[in-house]
Amino acid sequence: MEIPILDVTDKIQDKIEHLSEFGCLVVKNTISEDTREKVKTELEPAMEMSPAEVDDPEAFYPGNTKRMGALVALSETSGKLAIDKMSMDICDHFLLPNSDCGYQLHVSVAVEVGPGSRKQILHREEDPFPFFDLPRPNLIVASMWAITDFRADNGATLLVPGSHTWGKDRKPKDEEILSAEMPAGSVLYWLGGTLHGAGANVSNDWRYGVILTYSLGWLRQEENQYLDVPSEDVKKLPKDLAELIGYRAYGGLGFSINPEHFFLQDD
Ligand SMILES: O=C(O)CCC(=O)C(=O)O
Ligand SMILES: [Fe+2]
To answer: Ligand 1, closest atom to CA 155?
Structure first.
């Protein structure tokens, strides 16, 4: 198994087939340098407030890593990435069959992995839903937008291709854990059942990525978008983005009868 690499110009059907088979996929040439610079500039004040964490070997997040959520509130360009057409086509394919009421933004986090940061513990984005046995039905689609180059030595995401089909007793061998190297401007997709984690950064520079994940509309979101994007701010967002972050009802779940919340309409 490998981590397949396609170009943004390849057909969406090819992208879906590769993601389905390998549980992960790199798509190159997706965002311009201008877009990457905008993301960095818009998020800079918030990232500066996120002190690089000190390492605790038991912790889920490795040390010397900066993280910031609430990206839809903080960065208009990140909001545009959240509703990227390719991501929406991929989510339509993997998530709609399990949720005819749609899907939602599950996590929005910018993450900078700094020099000396150790490997993150391998995990599945779907682990917070242990009710389902492995392999679980598709609950989550994840993406990582490369703002800088992702290299094996600066902490590129580690993935275990094919692990989205494994049962609970199958553990990865060392040679099955691969590094998702990709040039800046690429996006890495992986399924919620695919084992992965940030790699160790043994270089001298920072690896910068934007994580945007999506979940079935009837699940609880991992990041609380109602706190991170207050309703006053939501009214200024494009309707599709407001709905994606959860400001809509899904098959009756999440309604509000407060007339102030005119935007909470069930389709
Ligand atoms: O930073 C990475 O490469 C992966 C991060 C990740 O998997 C997570 O935070 O859930
Ligand atoms: Fe993860």
So the answer is: 3
